[in-house]
Design brief:
Elements lengths: L18 E6 L13 E6 L2 H11 L4 H4 L10 E5 L2 E2 L15 E6 L7 H4 L24 H6 L1 H4 L5 H10 L1 E5 L5 H11 L3 E5 L24 H12 L4 E5 L8 H5 L4 E4 L4 H14 L3 E7 L2 E7 L7 H4 L12 H4 L5 H18 L8 E6 L4 E6 L41 E2 L1 H9 L5 E4 L3 H6 L6 E2 L18 E4 L4 H12 L5 E4 L2 H8 L8
Parallel strand pairs: 1-5, 6-7, 6-9, 7-8, 9-10, 14-18, 15-16, 15-17, 17-18
Antiparallel strand pairs: 1-2, 3-4, 3-5, 10-11, 11-12, 12-13
The structure holds zinc ion (ZN).
Length: 516
């Protein structure tokens, strides 16, 4: 191993065994090293490697070293992701195969002569054909609006015109779609399609930043169109006021270049995946739950699809929706922004897309992890011998938004809010069981109820009097229907589920009650 090098960064006269390492060059310095993000250099220590790199690319010297020959203090150096500069360990020996990363401070901008790489090859053509029709030249307004894009060689005028011809469909107009739609519109995507049929609710505003307080009660598509048109009047916004189904999915997706999956339920996710595979379109995936998020790009032509990852939806009730489980409001902002980033990269044909990679994000530890995904040769829709050649509707059973949950599994008996109110006010009122989770109970509850969260119900049936009538309620009526079904199977006879849950109760019986 190499000795010497205690003199920070200076070349040592000692000819020690040379290791060949990879050096990650930061974007502002790549113009001096041929433009590639990773280059190779030899040396026995971290300091030697950097010195050799500088000898090969002398213009780097003044950026990396001060007049005294020391590494400048706004440059950090990592060896295999460990910071070695702050520990004054440039003498740290390196081995062949190690990775040295140079990371300078970045203030959010850089002088033009530093960012413009020399001799960079033109980015590969994106989704459009070779002889693409990019339409009219950019107008003076557009040149001004997109100037920060035009300065990037990877985008430039041609890339901006390509974005202007691009069409992106966002399925869902909620938490993930909000930042994605805003950034895509700001980026100058020519046409943005939105599929949704909800109205803006006050509980959406914690994360669905496309909407404002004044929009509460309005259809999301209407509010979104106003906001996106205000942000960028050039963008054509097309709206689809329907639930995606096997009947309409292919026609809805067909005109678009990229599909962005911002849905909150499994049936729609599978439908978006299947339709994207059948149409040969990239499906930019994102999902969120509590403090965790996932993102990937499913493009069956170049990698796995969503069903390669998850061949079947999870069993009913295993994965709660945001309405039941909660979600950190910022989380869809992060994941939706990643989706928008991948979308723009796909359209421009630049960078390395998230194809074949599943990005996992944990806000609590603030860590990103990445898993490699492989195409499943037996995948029913994108495998070598696909058995599914059309679309199917998955039953609506999990991760569903609350207002769509009237079908009770197995036809559990129901009681309307009005009827329950009358029974509770009368003689011999029924025993009222709240099967929601404790945080929901803290927000609001029906007076006189007992909390037994659905997962605990099987163990706590002894607390229920079989002779008495029992009414179960939850937020929307779905979990209580499951609970009712369970009690019927256990031999209870006088048991029913509150139709529409506490949300319907708040609307029909007690309008002063908080809704969530
Ligand atoms: Zn597949």
């Amino acid at each position: 191993m190499g000795k010497g090098g205690s003199n920070i960064g200076r070349p040592t006269p000692v000819l020690s065994p040379m290791s060949k390492v990879q050096v990650r060059v930061p974007a502002p310095l790549r113009s001096f090293t041929g433009g590639a993000p990773v280059t190779e250099a030899e040396g026995a220590t971290v300091g030697e490697v950097i010195r050799h790199l500088v000898e090969e690319h002398q213009a780097l010297e003044k950026h990396l070293y001060g007049t005294g020959g020391e590494l400048r203090n706004f440059v950090t150096v990592y060896l295999n992701d460990e910071d070695v500069r702050h520990l004054k360990r440039e003498a740290t020996p390196v081995r062949t195969g190690d990775v040295v990363s140079i990371v300078p401070a970045i203030a959010g901008g850089a002088p033009a002569e530093v960012v413009r790489p020399a001799g960079r090859p033109t980015p590969e053509v994106g989704l459009s054909a070779d002889e693409e029709d990019l339409g009219l030249p950019l107008t003076a307004d557009q040149l001004r609006r997109y100037s920060r894009h035009l300065l990037l060689p990877e985008v430039g005028v041609k890339g901006q015109r390509r974005l202007r011809t691009a069409k992106v469909l966002l399925v869902g107009a909620g938490g993930l779609a909000s930042p994605a739609a805003l950034y895509l519109a700001a980026s100058g995507i020519g046409e943005i399609g939105l599929v949704d049929f909800d109205k803006v609710e006050a509980s959406n505003l914690q994360r669905q930043v496309m909407y404002g307080t004044k929009d509460v009660g309005r259809p999301k598509l209407e509010a979104a169109r106003d906001r996106l048109s205000d942000l960028n009047p050039d963008v054509v916004v097309r709206t689809y006021d329907h639930r995606l189904s096997s009947e309409n999915a292919l026609d809805t997706l067909r005109p678009y270049d990229v599909i962005l999956d911002g849905t909150d339920n499994f049936p729609t996710r599978y439908l978006v995946n299947d339709a994207s595979v059948l149409l040969g379109k990239p499906n930019v995936y994102g999902s969120i739950y509590r403090f965790e998020g996932q993102a990937s790009v499913f493009d069956a032509r170049r990698g796995p699809c969503y069903r390669c990852l998850y061949p079947e939806p999870p069993p009913p009730g295993l994965v709660p929706s945001c309405a039941e489980g909660g979600v950190l409001g910022i989380l869809p902002g992060l994941v939706g922004t990643i989706q928008a980033t991948e979308t723009v990269k796909l359209l421009l044909g630049i960078g390395e897309p998230l194809i074949g990679r599943l990005l996992l994000f944990d806000a609590m530890s603030l860590r990103f992890r990445e898993l490699r995904l492989r195409k499943n040769p037996d995948c029913v829709i994108c495998g070598t011998h696909p058995t599914q050649t059309g679309l199917i509707d998955y039953p609506a059973f999990c991760g569903i938004s609350p207002e769509t949950t009237t079908e009770a599994p197995g036809h559990a008996p129901e009681i309307s809010p009005e009827a329950l109110a009358a029974r509770l006010a009368g003689e011999d009122p029924p025993m009222l069981i709240d099967v929601r989770n404790p945080p929901e109970w803290e927000i609001v509850r029906i007076p006189g109820a007992t909390l037994i969260p659905l997962p605990e119900l099987p163990q706590r049936v002894t607390e229920l009097a079989r002779a008495r009538e029992v009414v179960l309620y939850c937020h929307s009526g779905r979990r209580s229907a499951q609970g009712t079904q369970l009690l019927l199977e256990l031999g209870f006879t006088h048991v029913s589920s509150l139709t529409g849950g506490i949300d319907a109760w708040a609307q029909k019986v007690d309008p002063t009650m908080a809704r969530y």
